[in-house]
Amino acid sequence: MSNTQIIQNFINRENDLYCDDCLSEKLDIKPRQQVNQICNKLKKQGLLKREVKQCSSCSKDKFINKMEGI
């Protein structure tokens, strides 16, 4: 399974909002920049929404990721 699929499956499965740092840590995808690139690509494709909100994991205000329409 590709890292893109891993990220999509995780975000679809979870009902929380996660920043790139926390996704990288939870999914063991290194470097963190790879998560950022994948999430930005999914956003451009209209599959993912990225906005500044509180991350459910680290509680910091950062760009969080959620599937579009959720």
Explained architecture:
The protein is an alpha+beta fold and 70 residues long. The chain has a single domain (3-67), classed as Arc Repressor Mutant, subunit A (Orthogonal Bundle), CATH 1.10.10.10. It has helices spanning 3-13, 20-27, 32-44, and strands spanning 18-19, 48-54, 61-67. The protein has a three-stranded antiparallel beta sheet. Strand 2 and strand 3 (61-67) form a beta hairpin. Helix 2 crosses helix 3 (32-44). The longest helix is centred in the middle third of the chain and has 13 residues, at 32-44. The N and C termini lie far apart (23 Å). The model has no long low-confidence stretch (mean pLDDT 95).
β-strand percent reads 15-25%
Strand order of the largest sheet: 1-3-2
Domain count: the total is 1
Number of distinct helices? 3
CATH topology: Arc Repressor Mutant, subunit A
N-to-C terminal Cα separation, in Å?
23 Å
What structural category arises from helix and sheet content? alpha+beta
Task: Compute the CA-based radius of gyration.
Answer: 11 Å
Write the element-wise H/E pattern from the N-terminal end onward: HEHHEE
Query: What's the CATH class, please?
Result: Mainly Alpha
Helix content: 40-55%
What's the main sheet like? 3 strands, antiparallel
Nearest-integer average pLDDT: 95
Task: Give start-end ranges of low-pLDDT stretches.
Answer: none
CATH architecture: Orthogonal Bundle
Please give the number of β-strands.
3
Specify the CATH homologous superfamily: Winged helix-like DNA-binding domain superfamily/Winged helix DNA-binding domain
Shape: globular
Oligomer: single chain
